[in-house]
Specification:
Immunoglobulin-like; eleven-stranded antiparallel sheet; globular; 8 helices; single chain
């Protein structure tokens, strides 16, 4: 069994899967906070048009609790975004689309559809309430069904549920690093994604930065420079359907125990909730969490999971790429989220988020700070027309440090027309504070 697990881990490393590169950390001795300019590039902006900016807050109707990571989309289009940790969103659409409807969906709640024309324009927070939609398990399961069978059906149904043609996606990416409770870096970018067909193992997803910006703040007294490797490239590795080796293969199923814990409504469709944990006789760190499986198509509609941290030594080896001599770095929490969106019978990657917290113990320091990394990517538009694969020199690599690369793509006047993830209050405050020290890079673009 151990040999087969090592084969899974080897596959994970080959693909730079979640534990290896999504949060692969470089701890280096501080030597000044200067970002690599990289190679600038330029692209023409789309034709200018009037943009409608709508802001809102999505909450539970009864408790008024914010609904975090709810999907917000314009019906009959591919335009979408997600709510932040305060339940807030911002969505920008051409005024020519004002006759359409806004749709909000969240796990366990009835979809809410609102005519765009009824929403207040920029400057107002539209409060949108959502009603829960509990589904008794017995109403869905007429005859007993084993969770293992559901997962097997999920795996066998991938060819019919996910697109077999490439897609070009526009997405917003944000990456933050905190030291204890204070943000020390914030970077974000509009990225373009070449999404390869799901049934082609020889074609891989690719990402390139279109426009980006960052703020960083490292006190001179702080001798540790914390860097996160991979950026948007490795955020795409959270697409478990495209990268199934560690969880969604028949081979991987041998190392997990499954439990059907209920049924929940997602996008007005009932979904099985399958909880999974690694088997007791498996010592190497694998995963645990929940899979949401559409009861009709057996498509994976989302997943919430994390790395098993019980084996600290093995978990540390997966995460830490480089650190100074005499420093102990221990990952404490690693949590991940991925969501898919169904359109015309096919399911598309829509959103992913990763958060990992580390404890740092260094002999040169009296205190033991915690560093928390967060990266999220939300697909805001998609097309299947005129797909052109990126040139090699344009693509981000797994080894790239996003905060070092993004400076070359800054354009302060660009951001008004494109959808972003609304910053949560703490990030918004951090941006304002950091802006007083280090302004967002805004160098003009040059021909690549």
């Amino acid at each position: 069994m151990i040999q087969n697990i090592n084969q899974i881990l080897k596959a994970m490393k080959k693909l730079n899967f979640i534990p290896v590169c999504l949060l692969a950390v470089l701890f280096t001795i501080y030597s000044g906070l200067t970002a690599s300019a990289g190679t600038p590039k330029d692209k023409k902006k789309p034709d200018q048009q009037s943009i409608l900016v709508l802001r809102g807050r999505v909450v539970d109707k009864e408790t008024l609790t914010p609904l975090v990571f709810a999907t917000v989309s314009v019906k009959e289009t591919n335009v979408a975004t997600v709510t932040n940790i305060d339940g807030e969103f911002i969505i920008k659409i051409p005024e020519t689309e004002i006759s359409k409807n806004l749709e909000i969906s969240f796990i366990g709640y009835k979809n809410k559809v609102i005519p765009l024309i009824e929403l207040k324009d920029d400057g107002f927070r539209n409060i949108i309430t959502m009603e829960s939609a509990p589904i008794p398990l017995k109403e869905i399961i007429v005859k007993p069904i084993m969770p293992d069978v559901i997962i097997e059906r999920l795996i066998s149904s991938i060819p019919k549920n996910y697109p077999n043609i490439p897609n070009m996606m526009t997405a917003f990416y944000r990456e933050t690093i905190r030291k204890n409770r204070s943000y020390i870096s914030i970077g974000e970018a509009l990225v373009e994604i070449f999404k390869a067909p799901y049934q082609n193992d020889l074609r891989f997803d690719a990402t390139r930065i279109y426009k980006g910006r960052k703020n960083t703040d490292m006190a001179k007294g702080d001798t540790v420079l914390f860097k996160l490797q991979g950026g948007p490239v490795t955020s795409l590795e959270l697409d478990l359907v495209k990268n199934p080796e560690a969880i969604l293969t028949l081979e991987a199923m041998k190392y997990y125990d499954y439990k059907l814990t209920g049924v929940v409504e997602i996008d007005e469709k009932p979904n099985y909730i399958i909880e999974f944990t690694q088997k007791n006789d498996v010592s190497l760190p694998l995963f645990m969490g929940k899979l949401f499986v559409d009861t009709k198509s057996f498509a994976l509609s989302g997943a919430e999971f994390g790395l098993n941290m019980s084996n600290k030594e093995e978990a540390t080896a997966l995460f830490i790429k480089k650190k100074p001599l005499g420093m102990e770095v221990t990952p404490e929490v690693a949590s991940y989220l991925v969501k898919y969106r169904e359109q015309d019978g096919k399911w598309y990657f829509a959103y992913s988020r990763a958060e990992v917290r580390f404890k740092v113990n260094w002999k040169r320091k009296l205190f033991k700070p915690h560093y928390t990394t967060m990266s999220e990517i939300a697909v805001t538009d998609r097309t299947e027309e005129e797909i052109i694969k990126f040139a090699g020199k344009e693509k981000l690599r797994y080894t790239d440090i996003f905060l070092d690369e993004v400076s070359a793509f800054a354009d302060e006047d660009f951001w008004g027309e494109y959808n972003v993830i609304e910053p949560d209050q703490s990030i918004e405050q951090a941006i304002k504070r950091l802006a007083k020290k280090v302004k967002f890079s805004n160098r003009p673009q040059q021909e690549k």
